């Protein structure tokens, strides 16, 4: 028997999928969770063969739950079953350690096939997900700082020197408001939260001495 833990915060989804899986001679749903925290707890306690993981759940989402499970149990086999195909869901889920990625629009029999294949060590991906991964592999990866304008690079250098916004404004002969806009833009492009993280990024990527 392939023991399965099913984590999804929609009760009707769990009922429908569990009903079908329970009718299979080789699959047994041994536990259900309606949030990420419970999924992590049950996964580490029961060590099921397969974990079906929803992405959007209350308290803790499926990506964070997947990360926590994989950190403590690297051999876990997690199949994402979700409604989302956007990049900010797909890639983080796979990077967190998910083995397979299915959509809730899939038929229950397709999910059962994915369970069997994943149990055997295969990776099962929706065709749309495979396409996204292939396109990403073909697209040259651009360093985040390559998106900065010359002025933003100039301001990043001054931030690394410990300059305040007002000092930067005085040195570059621009308004304080303009400096704040540039700082906000460069933080966004570098995907960091504050000036300190921007400076760390600059040193890490050898943008400043």
User: Please, how many helices?
Assistant: 10
Report, as a whole number of angstroms, the end-to-end distance: 59 Å
Q: What average pLDDT do the residues reach?
A: 91
CATH topology of the largest domain: Rossmann fold
Number of strands: 5
Number of domains: 2
Overall helicity: 40-55%
Write a structural description.
It is found in: Cytoplasm. This protein is an alpha/beta fold and 209 residues long. It has 2 domains: 2-138, Response regulator (Rossmann fold, 3-Layer(aba) Sandwich), CATH 3.40.50.2300; 144-204, Arc Repressor Mutant, subunit A. Helices cover 54% and strands 12% of the residues. It has 10 helices and 5 strands; from the N terminus they run βαβαβαβαβαααααα. It has helices at 11-22, 36-46, 62-72, 87-96, 108-119, 127-138, 150-160, 165-172, 176-190, 195-204, and strands spanning 2-7, 27-33, 50-53, 78-82, 100-103. It has a 5-stranded parallel beta sheet, sandwiched between helices. Helix 2 runs parallel beside helix 3 (62-72), helix 7 packs across helix 9 (176-190) and helix 8 (165-172) crosses helix 9 (176-190).
């Amino acid at each position: 028997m392939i023991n399965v833990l099913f984590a999804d915060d929609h009760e009707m989804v769990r009922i429908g999928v569990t009903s079908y899986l329970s009718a299979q001679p080789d699959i047994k749903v041994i536990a259900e969770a309606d949030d990420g925290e419970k999924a992590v707890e049950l996964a580490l306690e029961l060590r099921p063969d397969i974990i079906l993981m929803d992405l959007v759940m209350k308290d803790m989402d499926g990506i964070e739950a997947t990360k926590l499970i994989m950190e403590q149990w690297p051999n876990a086999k997690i199949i994402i079953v979700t409604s989302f195909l956007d990049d900010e869901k797909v890639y983080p889920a796979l990077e967190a350690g998910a083995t397979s990625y299915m959509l809730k629009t899939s038929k229950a029999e397709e999910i059962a096939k994915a369970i069997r294949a994943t149990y055997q060590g295969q990776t099962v991906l929706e065709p749309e997900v495979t396409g996204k991964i292939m396109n990403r592999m073909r697209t040259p990866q651009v360093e985040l700082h390559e998106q900065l304008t010359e002025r933003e690079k100039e301001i990043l250098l001054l931030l690394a020197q410990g300059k305040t916004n007002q000092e930067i404004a005085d040195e570059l002969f621009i308004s304080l408001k303009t400096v704040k806009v540039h700082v906000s833009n460069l933080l966004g492009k570098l995907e960091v939260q504050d000036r300190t993280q921007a400076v760390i990024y600059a040193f890490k990527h050898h943008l400043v001495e």
